[in-house]
């Protein structure tokens, strides 16, 4: 997704999570900015299609039955290693690997099996410019 001029990147991340995955929650950690090339966003201002994504970890508090983009998107829950395997782009894998390893190292994700473990299901949300 993208962010609008009248919202912060954090507000955009929460809005995009709702629109694309039908989830509401709290942003827990900024995972970083990642640059990538987009074939669909090539234009006169950026002929090479350079874009920047802001990645966040979201602690999901509510999973909606219906959401704006449910007809074009499928929600699925994956462990971090499974999500890394499904990434189409190297920068997405890097964001997950580095971001969640940092969270784990900082003890922001509990190491107990009963709580939010590194192998707990996650929803990955990126905001693209």
Structural account:
- There is one protein chain.
- The chain has one domain (9-112): Nucleoside Triphosphate Pyrophosphohydrolase (Alpha-Beta Complex), CATH 3.90.79.
- The protein has helices at residues 9-21, 80-86, 90-105, and strands at 23-37, 50-63, 124-128.
- Mean pLDDT is 78; it is low at 111-118 and 125-129.
- The protein has a three-stranded antiparallel beta sheet with strand order 1-2-3, with helices on both faces.
- It is an alpha+beta fold and 129 residues long.
- Helix 2 (80-86) packs antiparallel against helix 3 (90-105).
- 20% of the residues are buried.
- The radius of gyration is 15 Å and the shape is globular.
- It is built from three helices and three strands.
Q: How are the SSEs placed, and which strands pair?
A:
Elements (H helix, E strand, L loop, with lengths): L8 H13 L1 E15 L12 E14 L16 H7 L3 H16 L18 E5 L1
Antiparallel strand pairs: 1-2, 2-3
Share of residues in strands: 25-35%
Describe the sheet with the most strands.
Answer: 3 strands, antiparallel
Task: Detail the poorly predicted runs.
Answer: 111-118, 125-129
Could you say how many structural domains there are in total? 1
Which overall shape is indicated by the principal axes computed on the Cα atoms? globular
Q: Give the spatial strand order of the biggest sheet.
A: 1-2-3
User: What name does the CATH topology carry?
Assistant: Nucleoside Triphosphate Pyrophosphohydrolase
Considering the protein shown, what is the CATH homologous superfamily?
Nucleoside Triphosphate Pyrophosphohydrolase
Helix content: 25-40%
Q: Taking Cα atoms only, what radius of gyration do you get, to the nearest Å?
A: 15 Å
Number of helical regions:
3
